[in-house]
Design brief:
Elements lengths: L22 H7 L35 H16 L7
Length: about 90
């Protein structure tokens, strides 16, 4: 179920607004895509990890990496097993 994959809740604060995809548009566009991008939030204010990407102070909270691996693996498994939406 690639179009509806949800890995974590997002708490929006000051800064750039959260991207929200229209589920119907995603389902319609997915068959035509050559790739799928995944974004993994790596910011952790409690640990002082707050710098934006492509800056000299950028860091990431490595504790989220297992979540990213799991999400990507589950999406790939779902796709390869033919269980995705729009099939």
């Amino acid at each position: 179920m690639l179009a509806g994959l949800v890995l974590a809740a997002v708490v929006a604060g000051a800064g750039a607004p959260v991207t929200v995809n229209d589920p119907a548009l995603s389902r319609a566009a997915l068959p035509a895509l050559k790739r799928v991008d995944f974004k993994l939030g790596v910011r952790n204010e409690a640990k002082g990890i707050t710098a934006m990407i492509h800056t000299e102070d950028f860091d990431l909270d490595e504790a989220v990496l297992p979540l990213g691996v799991r999400g990507l693996a589950e999406a790939l498994w779902d796709h390869l097993s033919g269980g995705g939406e729009g099939r």
